[in-house]
Predict the 3D structure of the following.
Amino acid sequence: MSKILVIAEHLDGKLNGSTARAVSAAAAAKPDAIDVIVLSDAPDAIAAEAAKIDGVTKVLAVARAENAHALAAVIAPQVAKAAAGYTHVFAPSTTFGKDLAPRVAALLGVSQVSDVMTVEGPHSFKRPIYAGNAIVTVEVDAGSTVVATIRTASWPAAASTGNAQVEALSLDVALPSHTRFVNLQQGKSDRPDLQGAPKVVSGGRGVGSKENFEIIYKFADKIGAAVGASRAAVDAGYVPNEMQVGQTGKIIAPELYIAVGISGAIQHLTGIKDAGTIVAINKDGEAPIFEIADIGLVGDLFKILPELEAALG
Amino acid sequence: MKILVGYKRVVDYNVRIQVKPDGTGVVTDGVKLSANPFDDIALEEALRLREKGVAEEVIVVGIGPADLTAHLRNGLAMGANRAIHVQTADAVSPLTAARTFLKLVEKEQPGLVILGKQAIDDDANQTGQMLAALWDRPQATFASKVEIADGKATVTREVDAGLETIEADLPAVVTTDLRLNEPRFIKLPDIMKAKSKPIDVIELGSLGVDAADHIKTTHFAAPPKRSKGVMVNDAAELVAALKQKGLL
């Protein structure tokens, strides 16, 4: 009998879409129950959203002032305590889950399976290593709790037509005060979220400057796409860090990915391998991005992007 | 204070990884090995803190087989004061690595432990968080800025939503992200100097670490390949191709 506890990710009172993806992975293990735990200072609205995710048995809402910000040192002891009675603990493989889940695993005295792509069985999983250049099958001992992060790009979000019950959960755990939240500088954008958008336009070093990146934003807005970037573009200061796509940035799986002025380092390609259709626009016809692109166009991006906009009317 | 730095040796990031045809692993024979790039960043940060007078001693730690010495010498050449080589013939899991670090932390009493956020071989991204949990101390993962003052670390972290700043009482564990710094290059005279710096060799078995692994890797496979697509000649053809696929 297996029971899976999924840790909900949320920010500013809203549930993050990665949670429903983690629930999809949980459902693939065919457990007897999938419970979602929401830890927040004000969990009610978030828990109500989580209750709608298909496949969820019940939602556990943990309300505590210390949970106002997702500090791993504060959240982990609560999750570890709540994990009693569960065979599995899943978190999305986002910066939230990557920060938190290993701390939970260590408190439970177990190793962690990172970035689950495929669930082969309740204790058997596939995950990428070497920037996705090898895929390994791992088996977790049947007797130990499975703590895993879920590679969100590999899983669709479970639908939200469910109606699970929400229970308040009180956990008697002393929490540390040695780690404190100071602030969060969020990139304010009206564009779709990079991690969930069906269309993404990314720019690379070829864009040349922060000012030139306007041409990428303009084209993305024309087709309603989210905007991403290669590491080179982030390192050069053209765009902020949260836009980085790749091995150490965001791993995404949009239906359409348009790479503009991106040569296609292995580390970048890792982040887009699961995209439906990859389009590459680059002036260098020998760029590695063309080896994996479904549609390639060699040429000057500053000429091509306005032409594309014109062609779209 | 002392700073302990994790310094893992991995397959160089420029190597194109090949999976063995029998699925038992990846080809590592004759492949170039280098320091994990995130660990070079960790070491660089520790050296800068020492240069600022925040720390007195920087210790690089490696866990691995007997031939890890040459790799640790690189860390000493970059500027670490000394090295600790925890010797084991077997690859260790992140949990075992964290438990090993905990033993060294208990012995060395560092004010700060800096590790790479992930190693680019197993891409696990676990050891720092696990060490912080076992040590019951703060963690500041994915750091892009670290400031130490008044017994506290103020760390800016690269998170999905943007940049988060947290404050952590020392001692603490920091894991590095790419933009924390640019590691220095090793100069020839430093390689000579490094030869006289001490490397303590400790057998993993002598530390009393529980090295049991709950997770076994049973098979390695090459990733599914994306096939090479088509080239179009201009913007109009691209739009037509995307419209045909129903994407625009």
The radius of gyration of chain B is 21 Å.
